[in-house]
């Protein structure tokens, strides 16, 4: 049962901390609609994001929604950060209590313990239905069946916070918008996946790349630095020239380069990381996005209508899901 206006009329928080210590760009972008809703509901509140060091620069980009970034100190059972008991103890002794702590990290099996130690006046989030619920009035069973964007919004709706849409954002600076992109017809191949068993075989990426290059497209291989071995392997197997961008431009520059006005472009990728989360900009004249969804429906991967995607093949990887505690 939803509690209309519970947060606005009863709690009226003046300081809010959102806990989401996940590493990927996509992990951050999926919480942007929730941050936007929080800012609209509490325009005078101080909103902080407690996350990993990799998200610090992204928070600066979304200063309209987030006032402060706080680095997650690590915690036993949370694999995304190293464990240093001294650092954790010092962090908890120094942090000022917030009016509201929102656990948007995961199912709460571990993170809810950390949230309790923050000693906020009130906390809210998710819990596993077979585990302890910190507060039935402010916590929901973890909605594992919902797309990532809608999970956070599901909690905000439960708390009576008006939603401001599911659309994602990635604001560009004037300098980024002025970047001259040298390609008019190009296709990005993005082979990375957070779980190795879900990766589409690199040989098939190479075959697709050669087929499209033969039609006159410039092939760009994209990914993070840790995915460079995948893009290098694809490049070595291709007969046509491909440009390997893995780990070279920043995520920010890659994002603004991929959506240049007047370009014909496409992105072929698996559903795990960030490119699927970025909305199609109005300035992009022609852009196709092709999703390789290993064993899951398109709607569950993207959180969007299937009209935005075209299914061209079925591929089922081994079932191996990331557990977010």
Q: Can you walk me through this structure?
A:
- With 325 residues, the protein is an alpha/beta fold.
- The chain folds into two domains: 153 residues, Rossmann fold (3-Layer(aba) Sandwich), CATH 3.40.50.2000; 132 residues, 3-Layer(aba) Sandwich (Rossmann fold).
- Helices cover 29% and strands 17% of the residues.
- The protein contains twelve helices and eleven strands.
- The strands form two sheets. It has a six-stranded parallel beta sheet. A five-stranded parallel beta sheet has the order 9-8-7-10-11, with helices on one face.
- Helix 3 runs parallel beside helix 7.
- It is elongated and about 60 Å long.
- The two termini are 24 Å apart.
- About 5% of the residues have low confidence.
Domain tally = 2
Question: Roughly what is the average pLDDT, rounded to an integer?
Answer: 82
Radius of gyration: 21 Å
Bulk shape: elongated
> What is the strand arrangement across the widest sheet?
3-2-1-4-5-6
- The counted number of beta strands is 11
**Oligomeric grouping of the chains:** single chain
User: What is the structural class?
Assistant: alpha/beta
Can you tell me the CATH topology of the largest domain? Rossmann fold
Corresponding CATH architecture of the largest domain:
3-Layer(aba) Sandwich
Straight-line distance between termini: 24 Å
- The top level CATH class name of the largest domain: Alpha Beta
Compact overview of the structure:
With 325 residues, the chain is an alpha/beta fold. It starts with 5 loop residues before the first helix and ends in a 23-residue tail after the last helix. The chain has twelve helices and eleven strands.
